[in-house]
Amino acid sequence: MPEALRIDHLRKTYGETVAVDDISLSVQEGRIYGLVGPNGSGKTTTLSCALGLLRPDSGELRVLAQPPGRLAETKGALGVVFDDPVLLPGLSLRANLGYARRLLGHSGGRSDAEVLELVGMQGVPANRRAHGLSLGQGRRVAIARALLGKPRLLVLDEPLSGLDTVGVREMLRLFKRLRSEGITLLLSSHRLHELETIADDIAILLSGRVVREAPLPELLGEQARRLELRASPPAQALAALEALQGIGSVVALNDDRLRVDLGTREPEELARALHEAGCALHALVPERSSLQAVFEALLDEQLVGTTPGEAQA
Q1: Is the Cβ–Cβ distance between 132 and 107 less than 8 Å?
Q2: Can you give the pLDDT at residue 311?
Q3: Banded pLDDT at 242 (limits 50, 70, 90)
Q4: 145-176 burial by CB neighbour count: b if 16+ within 10 A, else e?
């Protein structure tokens, strides 16, 4: 499948601080791609390098087949909204859209009225000045601005920030509609629950590295094979499970809790191995299959000093 965005081995440092380290991503055309991670994980730096706003130390980047320095060649096929909508506060909505259209050289495509309707701003007078908008309204207008021209790829940084419940629902419906029209969406977001309802593919960044990139159904399928258990003595239980052939990974959490990737094993086999090792099994609970659970499991693995790659080895 053709790629709307490709990043290979991106590295960016600020002095001695490594912001992103050997990041590779592939965003396929016509899909919704979610980029998730905590603050400081490298999401904005990655997007800024791809969009030519930051110069990377190394790596190959292509957006709609163009390197960052030649994004003007995309001719309106790329729409971008960062976390700060950056509207001109003294201008009206209509003037903000008109200015953007002239600045970016957009011709044809959707009209101002159409893009404002798409983002649910049709009830707001087009002559209202931007400084009178709420944060959520400003974000809607910024997304409307990104829809001018004929975008094939939308890159949206925290697009749901500042929206109320109704606004979030409307925006998610819009994203699904745009995907149905063949537009590719790259969404950087902390809103994991909402992202799970629309994303086709997910990349999870932690400490400047991609720890997992996969289609969402694959991620959730993997999560269904994980469980959390409590056993004592915990060190003995950990050793018994690590020695069990076919186990995907075992991560010690706090107290006497262990997170186990079943691999080719079944829960009753874990219970048997613990009993044979002289361990007491106090609880064994399958993990809830959700993007939030996947994210928290990967974060836990990092916090205890075990990377996903090491855990699966």
Answers
A1: no
A2: 38
A3: very high
A4: bbbbbebbbbbbbbbbbbbeeebbebbbebbe
How far apart are the C-alpha atoms of 66 and 77, rounded to whole Å? 11
Query: Pairing between strand 32-36 and 184-188?
Result: parallel
Pairing status of strand 249-252 against strand 280-286? unpaired
Sheet strands side by side (includes 3-14): 17-28, 3-14, 58-63
For residue 215, the tally of other CB atoms under 10 A from its CB is: 14
The pair of structure tokens assigned to 168 is: 């979030």
Q: What is the pLDDT of the chain when averaged over all its residues? A: 88
pTM: 0.79
Residue where the block lists tokens 């998610």 = 172
Tell me if 279 sits within 8 A of 231, measured CB to CB: yes
Q: Are 208 and 21 in contact (CB under 8 A)?
A: yes
First to last CA, the chain: 30
Structural domains of the chain, with CATH: 3-218 (3.40.50.300), 220-312 (3.30.70.100)
- pLDDT tens digits along 15-51: 999 999 999 999 999 999 999 998 889 999 999 999 9
CB neighbours of 183 closer than 8 A, spacing ≥ 6? 30, 151, 152, 153, 154
Q: What is the torsional sign of CA 262, 264, 268, 272?
A: negative
H/E run at residue 18 = strand 17-28
Which residues touch 242 (CB under 8 Å, ≥6 apart)?
250
pLDDT per residue as tens digits for the range 163-177: 888 888 988 999 999
